[in-house]
Amino acid sequence: GNYRLTVRAANAWGQQGDPASVSFRIAAPAAPSRIELTPGYFQITATPHLAVYDPTVQFEFWFSEKRIADIRQVETTARYLGTALYWIAASINIKPGHDYYFYIRSVNTVGKSAFVEAVGQPSDDASGYLDFFKGEIGKSHLAQELWTQIDNGQLAPDLAEIRTSITDVSNEITQTVNKKLEDQSAAIQQIQKVQVDTNNNLNSMWAVKLQQMQDGRLYIAGIGAGIENTPDGMQSQVLLAADRIAMVNPANGNTKPMFVGQGDQIFMNEVFLKYLTAPTITSGG
To answer: Domain Tip attachment protein J Fn3-1, which positions (predicted)?
Structure first.
Protein backbone atom coordinates (compact mmCIF):
# COMPACT_ATOMS: atom_id res chain seq x y z
CA GLY A 1 0.00 0.00 0.00
CA ASN A 2 0.87 3.72 0.14
CA TYR A 3 2.49 5.07 3.29
CA ARG A 4 3.66 8.41 4.67
CA LEU A 5 6.45 8.58 7.24
CA THR A 6 6.94 11.70 9.38
CA VAL A 7 9.88 12.25 11.76
CA ARG A 8 11.23 15.17 13.79
CA ALA A 9 14.06 15.65 16.21
CA ALA A 10 13.55 16.00 19.98
CA ASN A 11 15.94 16.72 22.85
CA ALA A 12 15.96 15.77 26.54
CA TRP A 13 13.98 18.87 27.52
CA GLY A 14 11.10 18.02 25.20
CA GLN A 15 11.92 20.55 22.56
CA GLN A 16 11.03 19.40 19.03
CA GLY A 17 12.17 20.43 15.61
CA ASP A 18 10.13 20.87 12.46
CA PRO A 19 8.70 17.60 11.10
CA ALA A 20 10.00 16.06 7.88
CA SER A 21 7.80 13.72 5.86
CA VAL A 22 8.26 11.28 3.01
CA SER A 23 5.69 9.24 1.06
CA PHE A 24 6.45 5.75 -0.23
CA ARG A 25 4.77 2.64 -1.55
CA ILE A 26 5.28 -0.99 -0.56
CA ALA A 27 3.93 -3.28 -3.27
CA ALA A 28 4.81 -5.83 -5.90
CA PRO A 29 6.44 -4.27 -8.97
CA ALA A 30 4.68 -3.40 -12.19
CA ALA A 31 4.92 -5.88 -15.06
CA PRO A 32 7.36 -5.13 -17.88
CA SER A 33 5.88 -2.61 -20.31
CA ARG A 34 7.75 -4.15 -23.25
CA ILE A 35 10.26 -6.90 -23.95
CA GLU A 36 13.01 -6.45 -26.52
CA LEU A 37 14.16 -9.67 -28.22
CA THR A 38 17.48 -9.52 -30.07
CA PRO A 39 18.20 -12.44 -32.44
CA GLY A 40 21.64 -14.04 -32.60
CA TYR A 41 23.23 -17.20 -33.96
CA PHE A 42 21.49 -20.05 -32.12
CA GLN A 43 20.49 -17.58 -29.43
CA ILE A 44 17.96 -14.92 -28.45
CA THR A 45 18.61 -12.11 -25.98
CA ALA A 46 15.58 -10.98 -23.95
CA THR A 47 15.69 -7.49 -22.40
CA PRO A 48 12.61 -6.37 -20.43
CA HIS A 49 11.79 -2.68 -19.88
CA LEU A 50 9.64 -0.97 -17.26
CA ALA A 51 7.45 2.02 -18.00
CA VAL A 52 9.16 3.79 -15.07
CA TYR A 53 12.70 2.76 -14.13
CA ASP A 54 13.01 1.13 -10.71
CA PRO A 55 16.51 0.11 -9.54
CA THR A 56 15.06 -2.36 -7.01
CA VAL A 57 13.41 -4.49 -9.69
CA GLN A 58 14.85 -7.52 -11.48
CA PHE A 59 13.16 -9.98 -13.81
CA GLU A 60 12.38 -13.68 -13.81
CA PHE A 61 12.90 -15.41 -17.16
CA TRP A 62 10.97 -18.51 -18.23
CA PHE A 63 11.38 -20.22 -21.62
CA SER A 64 9.24 -22.51 -23.77
CA GLU A 65 9.44 -23.94 -27.28
CA LYS A 66 5.64 -23.82 -27.49
CA ARG A 67 3.16 -21.10 -26.67
CA ILE A 68 1.45 -21.53 -23.31
CA ALA A 69 -2.20 -20.60 -23.80
CA ASP A 70 -2.98 -20.39 -20.08
CA ILE A 71 -0.55 -17.95 -18.48
CA ARG A 72 -1.27 -19.59 -15.12
CA GLN A 73 0.53 -22.72 -16.34
CA VAL A 74 3.87 -21.02 -16.97
CA GLU A 75 5.55 -22.22 -13.78
CA THR A 76 4.54 -25.83 -14.40
CA THR A 77 5.08 -25.91 -18.17
CA ALA A 78 7.91 -23.52 -19.08
CA ARG A 79 11.57 -23.85 -18.09
CA TYR A 80 12.93 -21.40 -15.52
CA LEU A 81 16.11 -19.73 -16.79
CA GLY A 82 17.01 -17.39 -13.94
CA THR A 83 16.62 -13.91 -12.47
CA ALA A 84 18.54 -10.97 -13.95
CA LEU A 85 18.14 -7.69 -15.84
CA TYR A 86 18.40 -9.51 -19.20
CA TRP A 87 18.92 -13.07 -20.37
CA ILE A 88 20.67 -14.74 -23.31
CA ALA A 89 19.03 -18.05 -24.23
CA ALA A 90 21.72 -19.85 -26.24
CA SER A 91 21.81 -23.44 -27.50
CA ILE A 92 22.29 -25.32 -30.77
CA ASN A 93 18.71 -26.48 -30.17
CA ILE A 94 17.49 -22.91 -30.73
CA LYS A 95 17.02 -23.26 -34.46
CA PRO A 96 16.51 -20.59 -37.12
CA GLY A 97 12.99 -20.40 -38.48
CA HIS A 98 11.39 -21.60 -35.24
CA ASP A 99 9.40 -19.53 -32.74
CA TYR A 100 10.48 -19.51 -29.09
CA TYR A 101 8.53 -18.05 -26.20
CA PHE A 102 9.72 -16.06 -23.20
CA TYR A 103 7.56 -15.48 -20.13
CA ILE A 104 8.96 -12.69 -18.00
CA ARG A 105 7.80 -11.01 -14.81
CA SER A 106 9.17 -8.28 -12.55
CA VAL A 107 10.32 -9.21 -9.03
CA ASN A 108 11.41 -7.25 -5.97
CA THR A 109 11.72 -7.94 -2.23
CA VAL A 110 7.96 -7.57 -1.80
CA GLY A 111 6.51 -9.67 -4.60
CA LYS A 112 6.18 -10.47 -8.28
CA SER A 113 4.19 -9.06 -11.18
CA ALA A 114 2.11 -10.94 -13.71
CA PHE A 115 3.88 -12.70 -16.58
CA VAL A 116 4.35 -10.98 -19.93
CA GLU A 117 4.77 -13.11 -23.07
CA ALA A 118 7.24 -12.42 -25.88
CA VAL A 119 7.89 -14.54 -28.96
CA GLY A 120 10.97 -14.41 -31.19
CA GLN A 121 13.35 -16.32 -33.43
CA PRO A 122 17.13 -16.54 -33.66
CA SER A 123 18.93 -14.86 -36.55
CA ASP A 124 17.88 -15.89 -40.06
CA ASP A 125 21.11 -14.60 -41.65
CA ALA A 126 22.34 -17.70 -43.53
CA SER A 127 25.60 -16.05 -44.59
CA GLY A 128 26.27 -15.05 -41.02
CA TYR A 129 25.73 -18.62 -39.87
CA LEU A 130 28.39 -19.85 -42.29
CA ASP A 131 30.82 -17.31 -40.84
CA PHE A 132 29.77 -18.49 -37.38
CA PHE A 133 30.51 -22.10 -38.33
CA LYS A 134 33.80 -21.06 -39.90
CA GLY A 135 34.92 -19.74 -36.55
CA GLU A 136 33.59 -22.74 -34.64
CA ILE A 137 35.17 -25.27 -36.99
CA GLY A 138 38.40 -23.34 -37.45
CA LYS A 139 39.21 -23.29 -33.75
CA SER A 140 38.71 -27.02 -33.30
CA HIS A 141 41.72 -29.33 -32.96
CA LEU A 142 40.47 -31.37 -35.88
CA ALA A 143 40.47 -28.41 -38.25
CA GLN A 144 43.92 -27.32 -37.10
CA GLU A 145 45.20 -30.82 -37.71
CA LEU A 146 43.65 -30.89 -41.18
CA TRP A 147 45.28 -27.61 -42.16
CA THR A 148 48.70 -28.79 -40.91
CA GLN A 149 50.90 -30.96 -43.14
CA ILE A 150 51.79 -34.33 -41.63
CA ASP A 151 55.43 -34.71 -40.59
CA ASN A 152 56.25 -38.38 -41.10
CA GLY A 153 59.29 -38.07 -38.89
CA GLN A 154 57.07 -37.39 -35.88
CA LEU A 155 54.66 -40.28 -36.31
CA ALA A 156 56.41 -43.14 -34.50
CA PRO A 157 56.95 -41.50 -31.07
CA ASP A 158 53.33 -40.36 -30.89
CA LEU A 159 51.66 -43.75 -31.42
CA ALA A 160 50.34 -45.17 -28.16
CA GLU A 161 49.29 -48.63 -29.33
CA ILE A 162 48.68 -50.06 -32.78
CA ARG A 163 47.08 -53.38 -33.54
CA THR A 164 46.75 -54.71 -37.07
CA SER A 165 44.98 -57.94 -37.97
CA ILE A 166 44.70 -59.53 -41.40
CA THR A 167 42.19 -62.35 -41.83
CA ASP A 168 42.42 -64.34 -45.03
CA VAL A 169 39.13 -66.14 -44.47
CA SER A 170 37.00 -63.00 -44.56
CA ASN A 171 39.50 -60.89 -46.52
CA GLU A 172 39.54 -58.26 -43.79
CA ILE A 173 42.19 -55.81 -42.64
CA THR A 174 41.59 -54.00 -39.36
CA GLN A 175 43.91 -51.48 -37.77
CA THR A 176 43.23 -49.99 -34.35
CA VAL A 177 45.00 -47.22 -32.47
CA ASN A 178 43.97 -46.57 -28.89
CA LYS A 179 45.09 -44.82 -25.74
CA LYS A 180 43.83 -44.49 -22.16
CA LEU A 181 44.39 -41.63 -19.74
CA GLU A 182 42.84 -42.10 -16.29
CA ASP A 183 39.06 -42.25 -16.90
CA GLN A 184 39.39 -41.18 -20.54
CA SER A 185 39.89 -43.44 -23.54
CA ALA A 186 40.11 -42.94 -27.28
CA ALA A 187 40.29 -45.33 -30.20
CA ILE A 188 40.58 -45.08 -33.98
CA GLN A 189 39.80 -48.07 -36.13
CA GLN A 190 40.12 -48.52 -39.87
CA ILE A 191 38.43 -51.47 -41.53
CA GLN A 192 38.73 -52.83 -45.06
CA LYS A 193 36.53 -55.84 -45.70
CA VAL A 194 35.32 -57.99 -48.57
CA GLN A 195 33.03 -60.80 -47.51
CA VAL A 196 30.54 -63.33 -48.83
CA ASP A 197 27.08 -63.26 -47.26
CA THR A 198 24.71 -66.17 -46.66
CA ASN A 199 23.29 -65.76 -50.18
CA ASN A 200 26.77 -66.17 -51.66
CA ASN A 201 26.93 -62.49 -52.66
CA LEU A 202 30.04 -60.36 -52.38
CA ASN A 203 29.92 -57.22 -50.23
CA SER A 204 32.73 -54.73 -49.79
CA MET A 205 33.21 -51.91 -47.31
CA TRP A 206 35.75 -49.45 -45.96
CA ALA A 207 35.30 -47.47 -42.78
CA VAL A 208 37.13 -45.31 -40.29
CA LYS A 209 35.57 -45.16 -36.83
CA LEU A 210 36.59 -42.89 -33.98
CA GLN A 211 35.26 -43.14 -30.49
CA GLN A 212 36.16 -41.42 -27.24
CA MET A 213 34.90 -41.98 -23.70
CA GLN A 214 34.66 -38.87 -21.54
CA ASP A 215 32.88 -38.59 -18.17
CA GLY A 216 31.11 -41.87 -18.81
CA ARG A 217 29.71 -40.75 -22.15
CA LEU A 218 30.69 -42.22 -25.51
CA TYR A 219 31.34 -39.85 -28.41
CA ILE A 220 31.46 -41.30 -31.94
CA ALA A 221 32.49 -40.05 -35.36
CA GLY A 222 33.06 -42.00 -38.52
CA ILE A 223 32.91 -42.28 -42.27
CA GLY A 224 32.22 -45.39 -44.28
CA ALA A 225 31.76 -46.46 -47.88
CA GLY A 226 30.33 -49.74 -49.09
CA ILE A 227 28.79 -51.71 -51.92
CA GLU A 228 26.22 -54.37 -51.09
CA ASN A 229 24.20 -56.83 -53.11
CA THR A 230 20.74 -56.36 -51.61
CA PRO A 231 17.33 -57.90 -52.45
CA ASP A 232 16.60 -54.64 -54.29
CA GLY A 233 19.81 -54.82 -56.30
CA MET A 234 23.31 -53.43 -55.96
CA GLN A 235 23.52 -50.58 -53.47
CA SER A 236 26.50 -48.29 -53.02
CA GLN A 237 26.52 -45.73 -50.25
CA VAL A 238 28.69 -43.39 -48.23
CA LEU A 239 27.67 -42.77 -44.63
CA LEU A 240 28.84 -40.12 -42.19
CA ALA A 241 28.35 -40.09 -38.43
CA ALA A 242 29.11 -36.87 -36.57
CA ASP A 243 27.52 -34.07 -34.57
CA ARG A 244 28.54 -31.65 -37.31
CA ILE A 245 29.35 -32.24 -40.99
CA ALA A 246 30.90 -29.52 -43.15
CA MET A 247 32.44 -29.22 -46.61
CA VAL A 248 35.30 -26.78 -47.11
CA ASN A 249 37.08 -25.86 -50.35
CA PRO A 250 40.53 -24.67 -49.24
CA ALA A 251 41.29 -23.00 -52.59
CA ASN A 252 43.19 -19.74 -52.14
CA GLY A 253 43.29 -20.32 -48.39
CA ASN A 254 39.51 -20.16 -48.00
CA THR A 255 38.20 -22.05 -44.97
CA LYS A 256 34.58 -20.84 -45.03
CA PRO A 257 32.35 -23.91 -45.35
CA MET A 258 30.20 -24.32 -48.44
CA PHE A 259 27.61 -26.03 -46.27
CA VAL A 260 27.24 -27.21 -42.70
CA GLY A 261 24.94 -29.91 -41.39
CA GLN A 262 24.24 -29.82 -37.66
CA GLY A 263 21.43 -31.46 -35.76
CA ASP A 264 18.63 -31.79 -38.31
CA GLN A 265 19.40 -28.56 -40.19
CA ILE A 266 21.64 -27.69 -43.15
CA PHE A 267 23.16 -24.25 -43.72
CA MET A 268 24.25 -23.20 -47.22
CA ASN A 269 25.66 -20.05 -48.75
CA GLU A 270 24.40 -20.47 -52.33
CA VAL A 271 22.25 -23.16 -53.96
CA PHE A 272 21.37 -23.73 -57.63
CA LEU A 273 18.45 -26.14 -58.11
CA LYS A 274 16.64 -27.44 -61.18
CA TYR A 275 13.60 -28.62 -59.24
CA LEU A 276 12.50 -27.91 -55.70
CA THR A 277 9.61 -29.49 -53.84
CA ALA A 278 8.87 -28.06 -50.41
CA PRO A 279 5.60 -28.23 -48.47
CA THR A 280 6.50 -25.00 -46.68
CA ILE A 281 8.80 -22.17 -47.72
CA THR A 282 9.60 -19.30 -45.38
CA SER A 283 11.37 -16.30 -46.90
CA GLY A 284 13.49 -13.98 -44.80
CA GLY A 285 13.48 -11.30 -47.50
So the answer is: 1-29
pLDDT tens-digit series, residues 160-176: 455 555 555 558 787 88
Q: Residue range 51-77: average pLDDT?
A: 95
Q: Do 30 and 114 have their domain in common?
A: yes
Beta-carbon-side half-sphere exposure of residue 193 (alpha carbons within 13 Å): 19
My answer on whether 189 and 134 are in the same domain is no
62, 75 Cβ separation under 8 angstroms: yes
Q: How far is CA 57 from CA 2, 47, 275, in A?
A: 18, 13, 55
Q: How far is 281 from 179, CA to CA, in rounded Å?
A: 48
Asked if residues 96 and 129 have their Cβ atoms less than 8 Å apart, the reply is: yes
Alpha carbon distance 8, 241 (integer Å): 78
Query: What is the longest distance spanned by two Cα atoms in the chain?
Result: 117
Rounded alpha-carbon distances, angstroms, from residue 222 to 181, 188, 209: 22, 9, 4
Q: What is the CATH number of the domain that holds 86?
A: 2.60.40.10
Q: What CA–CA distance (Å, rounded) separates 199 from 241?
A: 29
* Domain residue limits at 28: 22-124
Question: Does one domain contain both 147 and 228?
Answer: no
- Candidates 63, 192, 174; CA nearest to 118 is 63
Q: Are residues 42 and 87 in the same domain?
A: yes
Answer whether residue 1 shows pLDDT above 70.
no
In this prediction, residue 157 carries a pLDDT of 41
